[in-house]
Every structure is written in structure tokens, then in C-alpha cells.
Amino acid sequence: MEKVALLTGNKNKYAPFKNFLNGSIMEVVLFKEEILEIQAKTLEDVAKAKAEAVHKIYKNSFLIDDVGLFLDAYPSFPGPYTKHMLQVLGAEGFSKLIEGKSNKATFTCILSGYINEEFVLVKGEVSGKFDPTIPLQDGEMPLSTWFIPDVSSPYGALEHRFQALEKIKREIDFRRA
């Protein structure tokens, strides 16, 4: 079976995946193509549309990583709109948004793509608290810094990604059998 490329254009996402995956069933490829990201009501719909668009131009087996933050105070929000809300609101806006409300949240990772021409989609989720008042260090991804998981994990705020990666590994092993 060929290796599965994890395509990302976000150099900050690249490092954690590269460290976790290289030398295994996957390789990480820094993807330079611009992919139009649709706005949809669910993270799964966004991930599926993105994977279908990439599949038209990238013919090898691949996965794409999409994440969403879901605030308990605002059911299903920002969810698939997380990236846009980060750009528009920033830390200060998110702080105001949850001021006086619950800071409980769920951080979700969807890995979607095509493996040997078959569509695949898996989800990893972790519950925790969201604190956008935590200062960012240079090069840090805001959500990975501002999200504090309820349960300790060697992967910290990236636990949702590694849950999804474990599911993908099981899926690939199942297809190999």
C-alpha cells in the first residue's frame, strides 16, 4: 500500500504531524495549492467538500486536517466558522464573546481525504476549557494555546488530532487486511 500524504498549507500544523507520522504509514506534504474552503453548517461538510476539491488535482492517497472549536455557551459555534472567527474577533473578541458565560468547549479534528480512491472521514474530539486571555508565544497556533483539555494527555491541546490520527491508522490497517 502506498503512503498517505497529509496535505497542509499551514506550516504551524506541519511540525506536529511530521513529528508524529514520519516513518509510518503516512508522510506529511506541505501543500502549496490554494483550496477554496466552503462555509457550511457542519465541520464534516466543510471537510468533505475540501477533500473532493483536492481529489480533483491530487491523485495520490491523501488526508486533510480541519479543526473546529465548539463553545458550550453557543451550541455548534463557532464550529466550522472557527478560522474566520479567529481572524475577525481575535483574542479580545473571543474573550468578550464568552465573558460571563461558560468557557467549556470541545475541540474537534476532522481528517478527510481519499485512500486508494475511497473517501474517508474520521473525527477526534476532546473536551476542555477555552481561555483566549493566555498570551501567545511566537509561532503558536492560537487554538492550541487557548484550549486547555480536561484530561491530561501527552499531546496536550493537540489530543483531538491524535485521536483522529489513531482512527485513520486503524482504518488503513483494516483496509490492508
What does the secondary structure layout of this molecule look like, with pairings?
Layout (H helix, E strand, L loop, with lengths): L3 E5 L2 H11 L4 E5 L12 H13 L6 E10 L6 E2 L2 H17 L5 E12 L2 E13 L11 H5 E3 L9 H18 L1
Parallel strand pairs: 1-2, 1-3
Antiparallel strand pairs: 3-4, 3-5, 5-6, 6-7
Provide structural commentary:
The protein is an alpha/beta fold and 177 residues long. The chain has a single domain, classed as Maf protein (Alpha-Beta Complex). Helix content is 36%, strand content 28%. It has 5 helices and 7 strands, in the order βαβαββαββαβα. The chain has helices at residues 11-21, 43-55, 82-98, 142-146, 159-176; strands at residues 4-8, 26-30, 62-71, 78-79, 104-115, 118-130, 147-149. Strand 1 (4-8), helix 1 and strand 2 form a beta-alpha-beta unit. The termini are close together.
Summarize the entry for a quick read.
This protein has a single domain (4-176), classed as Maf protein. The protein is 36% helix and 28% strand.
